[in-house]
Amino acid sequence: MDVPPAESVTPWWGTYTLEEDEGGQWEIGPSTVWLYRSARDWRVIHRPSTAATSTDPMEHRSRVTVPVPTAEMDEVLHADEPDWKTDRYSVRRTAAQVTLAPALADRPVVSRPEHPLHVPPGESVTLYLSTALWVRVVLPDRDGWLHEMPSHRMSDTWFGASTREGTLCYATRTAGRLQLDKLPLRLHRAVTPLHVRNRAAEALDLERVQLPAPHLSLYRAPSDTLWTNAVSMRHTTAGEGATVTIDEGPPSAVPEAERVQPPREPNRKGLFTSTFSAFGALFGP
Questions:
Q1: 204 CB-contact burial (10 Å; exposed 0-12 / middle 13-18 / buried 19+)
Q2: How many Cβ atoms from other residues are within 10 Å of residue 102's Cβ?
Q3: What are the φ/ψ torsions at residue 104 (nearest 5 degrees)?
Q4: Residue at 167 is within a domain
Q5: 91-129 tens-digit pLDDT
Q6: Which domain holds residue 168?
Q7: Given this model, what pLDDT does residue 241 score?
Q8: Proportion of the chain in helix, strand, coil states, percent, rounded to 5
């Protein structure tokens, strides 16, 4: 299957050089990020997607300005905007290079397709879901990442069989395309192929889907689109429930994709085997 390229924009991730007292600007989907380097600290300024000037989570922007003109950067540094968030990181001496990298969410993501999908008994379907990426700030001369923030701040939701059994997740709405060539590929979102097999005697209603984002790897295709491992869900009978597994390696739609981030949390054997009650919550309203 041919994968459509993302719209003609330059990827926002990469390694950049900032001299002392210089700043850069990254427009990433509905968010804007500024980095400012001084001799002894880094400033990370984030205008999130909740700001009044940028509210569309699907807004497709990927633009980098390095360096930002001094007068413009001064306005940002002294701006008094309640929606903006500024973090400062003090070090003995800053280095010129800084890297911005994509990452997956730090919690599972509950995706609700725009329209419920019904899978008849004995049928299988592949659903392509997209979720918002996190933005990591990495200093190449140090171990680990310095700071991370979501390109779109999703709402919180509880997901589980009851109020006592479950997980705190993020909630998002997705088109949930059945045809890959119909899915808009945006550089601030990652695509997950979800394979669902219904081996039960009754139709399966897909109204909500929980994606185990912390257990997925992130891959970059040659077209600069970003993907996760494929996730497979097998529904057998009402009594036995479903088995959820994460496929190894990049998805079959982009076999040449390279891994750019490992999972936040390692997979444990049997982690995604669920009872029918949990599976009912997984796909319930």
A1: buried
A2: 22
A3: -90, 170
A4: yes
A5: 999 999 999 999 999 999 988 777 778 889 999 989 898
A6: 105-132+151-283
A7: 52
A8: 10, 40, 50
